[in-house]
């Protein structure tokens, strides 16, 4: 039986390659709105983040989310990302 290929993506916080299911996708829709994409299938330009706080802080400090989406990110999206982070995931890497 043939093994299925597991899609890998790079976290913009820690720059590590992980499976797509482990990461949170942030997408800029064709309408220009920045939102979270839990399904991973929305149309638009996307970027991926780990669920740990250190990756999120690194991505915010370096403005990596805005640079990778080529669009400014609102405070509402930042708050949603903060809520979705796994508590206690600081030591994960």
What is the level 1 CATH name? Alpha Beta
**The CATH topology is what?**
Hypothetical Cytosolic Protein, Chain: A
Order of helices and strands: EEEEEHHH
Classification by helices and strands: alpha+beta
User: What is the domain tally?
Assistant: 1
Name the CATH architecture: 2-Layer Sandwich
Which descriptor suits the 3D outline? globular
Topology:
Blueprint: E1 8-10, E2 17-19, E3 24-28, E4 34-37, E5 45-49, H1 53-61, H2 64-69, H3 75-84
Antiparallel strand pairs: 1-2, 3-4, 3-5
Please explain how this structure is put together.
The structure is a single chain. This protein is an alpha+beta fold and 93 residues long. It has one domain: YlxR-like (Hypothetical Cytosolic Protein, Chain: A, 2-Layer Sandwich), CATH 3.30.1230.10. It contains three helices and five strands, in the order E-E-E-E-E-H-H-H. It has helices at 53-61, 64-69, 75-84, and strands at 8-10, 17-19, 24-28, 34-37, 45-49. The strands form two sheets. A three-stranded antiparallel β-sheet has the order 4-3-5. The longest helix has 10 residues, at 75-84.
């Amino acid at each position: 039986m043939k093994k299925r290929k597991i899609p890998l993506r790079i976290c913009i916080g820690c720059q590590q390659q992980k499976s797509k299911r482990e990461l949170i996708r942030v997408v800029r829709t064709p309408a220009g709105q920045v939102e979270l994409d839990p399904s991973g299938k929305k149309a638009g330009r996307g970027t991926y983040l780990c669920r740990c706080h250190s990756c999120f802080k690194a991505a915010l400090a370096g403005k990596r989310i805005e640079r990778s989406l080529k669009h400014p990110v609102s405070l509402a999206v930042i708050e949603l990302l903060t809520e979705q982070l796994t508590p206690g995931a600081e030591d994960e890497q």
